[in-house]
Target: TonB-dependent receptor
Amino acid sequence: MNFGARRLTLLTATVLAGVFCDAAAYAAVSQARGKHAAPVHPHVAPAHHRTAVDAKDAEAISVRVSRQALNGGGGMMRHEMASHSVQTVTRQYIEMQSPASTALDMIKNLPSVTVSTVDSSGILGGKINSRSLTDSDMGILLNGVPVATAYYLNQNVDTENVNMISVTPGSSAIDLPVTSAAAGIMDSQTMTPSHKFGGLMDFSYGTNNMSREFLRVESGDIGNSGIRTFASFSHTHARNWNGPGTNERRHLDFGAAKDFEDGSSVNLFVSWNHQFTMEPLKPTAKQFYDKKDGIGTYNYSSSYDPSNPSKYGMLNGNMWDQVFVTLPVHIHLPAKFSFDFKPYYVYNGGYTYNGSLFSGAGRNATIGQGGTPISGSVPSASYYSVYRPHAGTVAKLNYDPVSWDHMELGYWFDYQDNQVNNMYSVLQTNGSQYFPYNTSKGLYVNGTRYMPYQGDAGWKIHSLFFQNTAKFLHDRLTLNGGIKVAMINRWTVNGASSTPRTEQNQVVPLPQVGISYRIDQHNLIYVNAEGDFRMPDPGSLGQVYDAQTGGYVGNPYNPKPQYSIKEELGWRFDNDYFMTDLELFNYSITNRLLSTSVYINNQAISSTINAGNQTARGVDFMISAHPWHHLSPYVSVEYLNATMDSNILTTGTLNGQTVSDLLPTKGKTAVQSPHVHASAGLTYDDGHFFANGSVSYVSSQYSTFMNDEKIPGYLTDNLSLGYRFNSYGRFKAPKFQLNFSNLGGDFVRTGAYSLVSNAKAAKGVYGSTISASGTPTYYLYPRFSVTGNISVGF
Model:
């Protein structure tokens, strides 16, 4: 069945599922009229995880539920009931890891994702690959609200304030504010403020002069208002393990909650993050092996050379601020209705800078407006100043006509604007920078501040969605059908181009259908299918800067939107001893979007391109045990077979002429798609002493579309050891722990930072010679590190 037919089939199945659920529900309304309809609780634990009901007398009934009874592998896996794949790490596991860890560190043992991080301090970000896709194809959420890519994930929330992190690799709930979720969703859920006054403080110190301080205070219920809050602050400082420079992060979290007797609730979460980072260079394969063999170095220098400021480490950094606000409101309404309203706002802003040589020859250039003329080259800093507001809201009306049927009708609005200015300033004689907005030290050409690039790109999304979930056969059979229709307007404005504004509009239907059946109290099977849409980076719409001419040219790689159809078939088993999760998946992707280096007028430019069609098939398997003599093992494995289904348009040389041709990539293995990802973990926890160890293997993966360069398979490992002391007076559960990473000190590559089409010259489909398109660069796994942490509650 071709892609168009499968898309039509999915849409039809979604409509039929919704119609069937609605018809069944309304047929039962008359029978249920006048009766009390209990609310639907889709996440209630199975019967064997609920303790017996104790009836002391006719009016005294208590029900006890063990939260950890839903966990396996020491919190590395959780029992799930959804009709799609869900992979979750819980607070039990998170508490055993270093507080400096980010969500990326927490999920790297899940079968569906491979993670690349660049440091052990939790300050610098990283990258996620999932089933041949990247985090650009993933919805990265905090409390169900979009934040940013994995590179900025560390800025969202402190680890101590995270309750759980869930990855749904093949699906996204229809009411979530995302469209680009071909690789699914990663959602971190923050803690809810306690009803009692208290708090937590901890201190960490580790390798590379890493130090971290954290303090959280919870107000408890404030008077009789029912409002409770928490506020926390952390500070982290660390030296780069690879290359010169240090990184520093300051972070603030604040939460407030209010519950009402009728079931209504209001929750506020605010975070602020400020950081200054100096990220090391990403090496090529040759540079990596030279460094490994001790015969060279590729990184920035710790000393300043005015003839080559681009190599000075202190001139390659990033100053970044983020503010995140969300205020979800749930309102209980009469007549079986309820209403959810979730506004959000995310601000990102700052600048990155690099050392450079600025040539004033023939430009009428000056330092400052009308200041000292420049005739030759002067050391300078190039600044990319970024302002990125992102706001939106989800409004949803819920209706439960009967106890076993739930309907949702909603609207989602999303707006993001990315404003970028590239400006230059002269350097001090010792290589130090001036403040980038100091106009007296800025570089001017013809009396105007030199800004070779001034961009403004963004989008507006208006979306309507509807879904219906119905339960039959005493809640054993669940049917879900829904559709989201997104109307997207994206634009780019180039202030230095002759055609400054380009925009595009799309209307995209995104259907979903899911079925699950609980065979008995131990076994559940499910099937899920949905469509997904990803729009290209709005900046790819416009013209690109040609460094050779100093002007702008049209982008011949203007990419089309990516569309995916995903199917899942799964089985879960859970009893008092262990739990398993087995899933088969299939992805069909058209107009695959990838970021790579392309050549325009013989100039290498980073751009997003269409890499043709792609198919990804495989299996995920997870198994873990509930605690047995305080031991909880965990094993996961994914087998993935992802192939490119198209040749890539390019240019080659034939008979001395430049001609259009196709790079023969059809049938090649997709980039960043290891065939095997396997992890194993073991947890011991007797209430006082605890230990958690894990090891993960990722097989080789290609970094070029022609499969002529790859990363060999590699191992990563982690070990946590700790002890919880008895509480003493006001001091609650003092704890000491040690966290180790990369125990063997291996120097390995864990992922591709930049991709290229072909690292070696190739023969095109039509016979032309296609030159090598560049050299990939790579993420490196940080060397051995250890972090010690002391914490105490109060």
About this structure: Helices lie at 3-32, 91-94, 103-107, 285-292.
